[in-house]
Known about the structure:
Blueprint: H1 78-83, H2 99-106, H3 113-121, E1 127-129, H4 134-150, E2 156-159, H5 178-190, E3 197-200, H6 214-234, E4 238-243, H7 252-261, E5 272-275, H8 283-297, E6 304-308, E7 343-347, H9 367-374
Parallel strand pairs: 1-2, 2-3, 3-4, 4-5, 5-6, 6-7
Helix pairs in contact: 3-9, 4-5, 5-6, 7-8
Active site: 204
Region (Disordered): 20-89
Protein name: Glucanase
Amino acid sequence: MAVAASVVVAVGAVTGMVSALDDRGGSDEAGPPRVTRSPSLDSLPLLPSASPSVTRSPAPTSASPTRTREKATPTPTRAERKQSTAVVSSRLYRHPDSQVLEWVRDNPADPRHAVIESRIAAQPAAVWFADFTPDTITARVRAVTSGGSALGRVPVVVPYAIPVRDCGGYSEGGAPSLDAYDAWIDRFAAGLGSGDVIVVLEPDSIAQSECLSAGARADRFASLARAGRAMKQANPKARVYYDAGHSGWNAPGKQASWLRQAGAASTASSDGVFSNVSNFHATPDEIAHDRAVLDALDGPASLGAVIDTSRNGAGAPADGEWCDPSGRKLGRAPTLATGESRIDAYLWVKLPGESDGCKGTPGTFTASYAYDLAR
């Protein structure tokens, strides 16, 4: 299995530090996520807001240099502006602290503003928690979930702190041990509140687990099963989904075997699986893959799947490029009404426009990339 490079950008709640790891070449076949930053307490609004205005997070103290200079982009045509309006789910939550919303606020005169605002910034997207900060994680998760509850909408949260994350590769980080991770998960679960919330549990933690020894893999799967139970015990309305990779990765039977070991077949810890996080595979391919995984999982009929459709509107590149590949497009708008059996939601887990490292500084919002995806 070839492993693609990835980048984690995590803003610490206390230091406001940005960590950007250099990208390197790889294959799309096992593309780990290039994640958005984690929200800090300082950046969270005191009251939930449905407007694009946000409070800026502390400025980073370090970042990797931009690999390519952003080119000037022509003013969008009237036709582009007209077709840029996307249907926004009335139930999924748009968290008011994101890099794209900051860009929209700070660049009202930019000729790309209308397209980026209407097609990306207006859409609900997942909130990642990628930094291991036990002392503040409960409050930060609670700020997001309470914001969604106050508006009657469903937030999507992504815990991403499993030890040996990304097999020690370019998104390395997370908790120092599984014991520390279990304790962090308990604090994460304590912030889930009592309203509806979707949890995308540890992208790549199962699909990319072959790098571990059999014993270490079993220990990881035990912690993931425990994590699902902890979240559903803390909030029975939480819907927890486990890593099914994507349609270009592991065979459904192999993935299902691992998922079963990680507790994904039990409703005590799981509501099903997720796929295509930060990747580009077409929605029909993901639907078929997820149904095959669920069939092989042989769990209760209530188990379903959620799919990351943020950047899969043109499907995966034929050459397997994973780093800001050209010619990609936004996928289907986030929604909880897919019209497809066993497919519970289309989600934007990866925020479109946050670079993988080739069209902008890794992990940060790049307007030229966002505009190319959106138009």
